[in-house]
Write a structure and sequence with these properties.
The complex is a heterotetramer, with two copies of chain A (331 residues) and two copies of chain B (199 residues). Chain A is an alpha/beta fold and 331 residues long. Chain A has eight helices and 15 strands. In chain A, helix 6 packs across helix 7. Chain B has a two-stranded antiparallel ribbon with strand order 1-2. In chain B, helix 3 runs antiparallel to helix 4. Classes of the chains: A alpha/beta (331), B mainly alpha (199). Chains in contact: A-B, A-C, C-D. The interface between A and C is large, with 65 and 64 residues. The structure holds adenosine-5'-diphosphate (ADP) (2 copies) and magnesium ion (4 copies). One magnesium ion binds next to loops of chain B.
Chain lengths: 331, 199, 331, 199
């Protein structure tokens, strides 16, 4: 039984999607090479170039966050697969402004190997590229450096993009990006599997009535299986885990993202958000920014994640800095 | 018997066919502990490699072309790992139109070293290294192709009992136990195709 | 087998969602009464009040389109059920500025009865309320006046909201709204059912490998069942039907919306958009505005709709007029 | 025997219980030609009505309270239709704490007229009117409650053979054939509960 998708040939899904993205957003986006998406406005001499990327299937992550004030370019991989070095290099070469390149992407073995190869290739062109990995998925390891990067990307990239847009030097942009990552915490649950366009087979079994806690955004198994709980219980489990790690003082500001993994609709996200808001208020935390919607998806997977970024003055200002991307705007 | 550029062209065609046939099985394996795409990566990579190797003058050119084609078609984890493997194989094969059959086990050693260099994996971490490393050790000790293959296979089988500490499955902890590593399984298929052509 | 939802009690899903919406968007939205959502900015003396509404489960339609430059208020019904007259009256009373109220909503028997009762109640308060129904679903009847209102709402409401924001009188706003509706054409396909939070049972059977062509946004059956086709064939069938009706001259401007019914992800929408763009270019039509995403959903239903609005100078200007809603922004 | 405010309180309690029991069946019927929520609307509406009617002085007050409660809980199509039905019943019952049992069939006629007034449906359009109209005709002609119920039921049964021309199902054309109208089916359940209390 094949899953139901509106595609043509699964092998061409990513390229056809890119054709659609370029056609729909000609004011925002252009191509450096077939898998290197570049912002029309934003890249400029003297500015650190922020290049993000990763596998497809997480839209609007990554390509939707390319634009003035956020990322200068994105390298686009196959579904759930890191892009190879070439489009990463193409992206970096197209947008670098002589002030260095910052690569940002989720911490996955494949992405690390491909971006590192790209970094070596750029060195041969005398272009300095640094890397800040995102590692916000608190369910994926007790050790932050081993964690996966998931929906927290939105906030972390946003902050780094703002720092670059303000013409800060590479050291500073990298410091801020790492700082933003260190203060960002995400955890999610999956209520259904998704399927790759090439195989159209569910990528794991999840019996009705169960959920996977700590699910990765590629369908990687999480911490454990458990019975599907009411939304408030799910929100509580996630918020408990995040608050315990974050250890923010009373009165601190936070940014919140309640994110759909794909097919979980806004109604459910806002039900979750209602509980999250209650819990944050009870913990004396102030919500500076709230995003609710599909920001980092796993195609048609059902489920949701909650991200909290523990703000300080610097992060709050950078979050508020305007950006204008095809699929995300601030200010 | 010599191993020629024509043999290598045939071998890559076989690898492409084999991976196409095993695609869904490898994806299902990857679905248990990873992201269910390993079969797709291997199919696309080997297909691109197979298309890149015909009509090149030397084995070295062929392996280098395969490396580039595989990498650009795939990315992912498999892309850099097999691209590096093929580049090392290219060096070992050298700028020759053929190499003596007796030297071909060195290709396995070279590939294993490339994968280890790129991925920094140690045996026991539940990755493709757990197939490539024992195969390479066997090759170094002068084993026959059937012995090399058996070494790879028992290495791959053993991954079912390992807890992953590298790659996507590393976050699973104990839940990775009981399932073979898909990269180790596809590694055996590759080595099996080498063995078929070379033994 | 119950469907997998992140909710608490299905009977409270709508109210809990509203709690989350208000909590997440305090700068944009407030309440007139529990089911009457009101824009914080926008309503003002002398301005025609645009009040929209309908059943829940279509988010971001309707409440996401409340804000300065678009709707002044929305009355919120139960899932897939028109709101009763009271919240409609509450919404209208909260935002009317002495220049009359324009009700806009999709053409469904239930909505018509409830909004008409609200109109009668407002008459008793000496508040003039007029109605423009949206009827953009070309698959739902050969007779435009009998058609359902679906995703085209976004464009139609947008244009009417802009006209009201420009302080045009009620007659003009109503004329423009009707004009916008008359030039808007939508058709969709469903690839899966959805389920109500109270029952958590699929609201219809759709075997794998099939699709429902012309599906309504409440799971109402469409024109026919057929085998699931490639995305390009689906786009072609819809575009053929729309172009035939629209009969736009070469060189005309259009606005396009490729909309997800819920669980169909951006990847598939952009694959559809790629084909739509190709077809429109071949027909010598120029895309003035392109929206791609979940704008008018049926909770977690899989599928997509395509909307084309045939623009003229007036409609294009009104579409470009700024608006700032919690879930939709222009300008 | 008189029909008292206590009887009406009991009747609405029965209606609420009945609709709760039939909720999923009515939703399933509505799923075939509509939007699968009719059972929810009827359950919520009757529950709200049942909560609103106790401790009111007259049948008129009770029916009016039921109308308002049903409408505000439900909206949808059923809300205005049954709210208007109950308001007409209120007028017929009048400001009395009881009405003669023999007059109660007039309530059916009043409700049918309210529904027809609000929805503008004609018999044959595959709506609840196809149950309410024959029931009302029977009531007008002095039929007994069992006869009124049978008239409603054969009207509802006949909707399976009708092509809808009003309401959500109207867009279905021929595809609405073969399925009973959910509103007509729930109408029979309502009339059955009236008949149980009143005959
Ligand atoms: N650092 C590494 N060294 C060796 N092999 C690795 C490493 N990381 C991952 N692998 C192998 O890659 C396989 C997964 O490949 P694939 O599914 O194609 O990539 P991805 O994990 O990016 O989806 C794993 O089964 C494992 O054998
Ligand atoms: N104009 C009308 N007159 C009488 N009954 C109607 C009319 N429109 C719809 N109905 C009835 O309403 C029923 C559907 O009610 P319900 O499911 O509660 O509302 P909705 O259609 O708004 O979801 C239909 O089965 C039909 O009997
Ligand atoms: Mg992958
Ligand atoms: Mg994988
Ligand atoms: Mg309904
Ligand atoms: Mg209904």
């Amino acid at each position: 039984m094949l899953t139901q998708k509106l595609i043509n040939d699964g092998n061409h899904a990513v390229d056809e999607m890119l054709r659609g993205v370029l056609a729909a957003h000609p004011k925002h986006l252009t191509l450096a090479s077939p898998r290197a998406i570049v912002a029309k406005h934003g890249p400029r001499p003297g500015k650190v170039a922020l290049v993000i990327g990763g596998g497809s299937g997480h839209e609007p992550t990554f390509l939707g966050f390319v634009g003035k004030g956020l990322a200068d370019a994105a390298a686009v991989g196959n579904v759930f697969a890191s892009p190879p070095p070439q489009p990463i290099v193409d992206a970096a070469m197209a947008v670098h402004g002589g002030a260095g390149v910052l690569f940002m992407y989720g911490n996955y073995a494949g992405d690390v190997m491909n971006f590192d190869m790209a970094t070596e290739l750029l060195e041969m062109e005398d272009i300095e590229a640094r890397t800040v990995l995102t590692t916000d998925d608190i369910a994926s390891s007790p050790d932050r450096s081993k964690r996966r990067g998931v929906a927290g990307n939105v906030f972390i990239f946003k902050v780094a993009g703002a720092a670059a847009d303000l013409m800060l030097p590479l050291d500073e942009v990298a410091r801020i990006a790492a700082h933003a990552n260190a203060r960002t915490y995400t955890m999610g649950v999956a209520l259904s599997a998704c399927s790759l366009p090439q195989t159209r087979r569910l990528n794991f079994d999840l019996p009705a009535g169960e959920m996977e806690i700590g699910m990765g955004i590629h369908g990687e198994p999480g911490i454990r299986r458990g019975p599907l709980k009411p939304a408030n219980d799910v929100a509580d489990e996630i918020i408990d885990a995040i608050l315990a790690e974050m250890a923010a003082p009373k009165g601190a500001n936070v940014a919140v993202l309640v994110n759909s993994l794909g097919s979980t609709p806004l109604m459910e996200l806002y039900i979750l958000y209602a509980r999250v808001a209650e819990r944050l208020a009870a913990a004396d935390l102030t919500v500076h920014t709230a995003l609710v919607g599909p920001y980092c998806t796993s195609m048609e997977m059902a489920g949701a994640s909650i991200t909290i970024m523990h703000l300080d003055e610097e992060l709050a200002q950078l979050l508020d800095h305007p950006c204008d991307c095809a699929m995300f705007r601030v200010g | 018997m010599d191993f020629t550029t024509q043999d290598l062209t045939d071998l890559f065609a076989n690898l492409a066919g084999r991976m196409a046939a095993e695609r869904d099985a490898l994806c299902a394996l990857d679905g248990l502990i990873g992201d269910a795409d390993h079969g797709i990566a291997m199919e696309q990579g080997m297909q691109a490699a197979a298309a890149a190797v015909p009509n090149l003058a030397t084995l070295q050119d062929q392996f280098n072309a395969a490396a580039k084609a595989f990498l650009n078609a795939v990315g992912a984890s498999s892309g850099p790992l097999y691209a590096t493997a093929f580049m090392r194989a290219a060096k070992t094969a050298g700028p020759r139109a053929a190499m003596p059959g007796a030297e071909t086990p060195d290709l396995i050693t070279a590939m294993a070293e490339g994968i280890a260099h790129r991925g920094k994996a140690e045996p026991g971490q539940k990755t493709m290294i757990d197939a490539w490393h024992p195969a390479s050790e066997a090759a170094k000790s002068g084993a026959t192709w059937p012995e090399i293959l058996r070494a790879a296979q028992s290495g791959a089988d053993a991954t079912a009992q390992m807890q992953a500490s590298l790659g996507r499955a590393a976050r699973l902890g104990e839940r990775s136990l009981g399932h073979k590593d898909p990269g180790a399984v596809s590694a055996c298929m590759i080595i099996e195709e080498f063995a078929k052509v070379l033994s």
